[in-house]
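Final report, closing paragraph on structural work. Over the funding period we assembled a curated collection of sequence-structure pairs, and we close with a single example.
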Amino acid sequence: MDTVREMATVAAQQGRSAGTDAERRTALLLRDRLREMGREAELQTVPVRPRFGLVHTAHALIAVVGSVVAVERPTLGGALILAAALATFLDVTNIFQLGRRLTSRRLSQNVESIERGDKPGTLVLVAHYDAARTAGAFRLATRVLRDPWRAMLGAMVLLIACCVARALGVEGVVLTAAQFAPTVLLILLLPALADIELSDTSRGTADNAAGVATVLRLADDIGGRLEHFDVWVVFTGAQAPFALGMSGWLRQRRKELDRQRTAVLNVDGVGDGELTFSRREGPVFTLRSHSQLVRLCREIAEDEGEAGAQPRVIHERTDAAAAIARGLPALTVSRDGESIGPNEMESAYAFCRELIERLDAEVGPDLAGITPGAKAAAAQ
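Its predicted structure, as stored:
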């Protein structure tokens, strides 16, 4: 399979942000491509509210207003900041999209291709095909703060503490300075958050047309050929607004995905940077990638020496992070960078292929003896 051509075909679908016609056209293209490969493939429609940039700009603005109000009326100011912090936390962790309830709803699509080979395990290969906004200002904030959502929530928590102190009668220069610093941070974050909404949709070549092409090649090469795992393929939409497509897919398939028999491999971004695998993922509070998958990745990296992949912490809600939150063994393979070439794609493919083969050889034989739905973790 020519992965460069597959990547170019997806990247040519410009403007494929969540809930757009371009995203739907890309989903149809990928469904048809999977069928051409001899796999069954269907679309799953997922209702989403993708305007997270607008919502979190409002959250930050409410917290700034609350900080100003708190100087004279600390109780009212603290209530505003607390409301903004709670709404931000619930949205970022995808527990409940409180603020987004006020925004318009769109339809996104997942493309799923399921093998029914009656093997004891299920390997889910995942790559998102939607493209994020260019959001240069927010990307800069991410480089500086590493996790802007944690920084934003941390600033709000500090402001709430200052409001409590003022309500108790504490005054002084130290308290004013303590309140000033997080307020300035939130003010600086405002244009970065607004830029998410105002910027154009990226071409999404490295992130994540290259990841889609890698998964297509993996599915073509190993589909139906693993001894212990059926290979499922899921191309998710609406990943940029906190993995909404993957969350919708997991809700629909939750009864079929046994936590002891399922592994999720997410390929998210294949650029020209260093090849990495996740050891923790998620915004604010990172979740641990599955220990067995991480161990296998480390062993592959050690075998390859200095050229081997490196572990990393991903401060984003990736599709793998959504799976981990559901209790499924999951891990993300990626490489940073905007540009991409055949060598980078080949190395990412080779690493994923080696990981899958070791998973099948080392973990697969133990799956037959696991009772479906068992509580004991087989691979820990």
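Residues 3-48+108-132+201-367 form a domain with the Aminopeptidase fold (CATH 3.40.630.10). The longest helix spans residues 173-198. We thank the funder for supporting this effort.
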